[in-house]
Specification:
Shape: globular
Distance between the termini: 27 Å
Number of domains: 1
Number of strands: 10
Order of helices and strands: EHEEHEEEEHEHEE
Strand order of the largest sheet: 5-4-3-2-1-8-9-10
Radius of gyration: 15 Å
Strand content: 15-25%
Helix content: 10-25%
Largest sheet: 8 strands, parallel
Length: 194
């Protein structure tokens, strides 16, 4: 189930601790398509897409049964309404549907998903890529059986390679995260880009 967002702007909402509700509200007032990653469907239930990488995350959230939009996962979630993608390795951007590069984090995978959908401008919020003020997420930590940004320090290195590929393809990525260690994309205030 490949969505057609050709030429559209997408906003990807990750769980970084610096994410603020006013940013999400601002995105909701725009015409941008929205991909919420993991628990971010709770701060943005009107997102167009919910992306969760891990089957155990989907099980812990009962398939996010109240989420009305499209659902995607890298692993077999066990839920029939969650479309499963294919892991094609860690680095780069995969342009062959439904393959997706992982970057070892859901935010990276959501970026590859937005590329598959045809977006030419992609805005990132909540992409701290660090523990900000000692916190791992804007929400409470996941239960111990789920991942809690343990390897956050290695994530930016995967984005560096993706940034070069996307720039070459004419896909603009703007990082509007308030506090971020992800420096390979142009940075801006979301109010200046939407």
């Amino acid at each position: 189930m490949k969505l057609n967002w050709k030429g559209k702007t997408a906003c990807l909402i990750a769980s970084g601790p610096s994410l603020e509700k006013w940013q999400v509200d601002y995105v909701l007032k725009s015409s941008a398509k929205i991909i919420a990653i993991n628990n971010n469907w709770q701060i943005c239930p009107a997102a167009d897409v919910l992306y969760g990488c891990d089957a155990k995350w989907w099980r812990a959230h009962k398939g996010a049964e109240s989420f009305w939009g499209h659902k995607f996962s890298l692993e077999n979630s066990g839920y029939s309404d969650v479309y499963q993608l294919h892991d094609s390795g860690n680095s780069g951007i995969d342009f062959l549907w439904p393959n997706i590069k992982t970057g070892k984090n859901g935010g990276y995978q959501a970026l590859n998903l937005a590329v598959h959908f045809g977006c030419r401008k992609i805005i990132l919020i909540g992409y701290d890529m660090q523990h900000t003020n000692g916190k791992k997420h804007w929400h409470p930590d996941h239960p111990k059986k789920l991942n809690n940004a343990q390897c956050v320090a290695i994530w930016p290195q995967y984005f560096k390679e993706a940034a070069l590929i996307l720039k070459e393809k004419g896909i603009e990525v703007i990082n509007c995260t308030i506090e971020t260690a992800l420096k390979c994309f142009k940075q801006a205030d979301i109010r200046d880009v939407l």
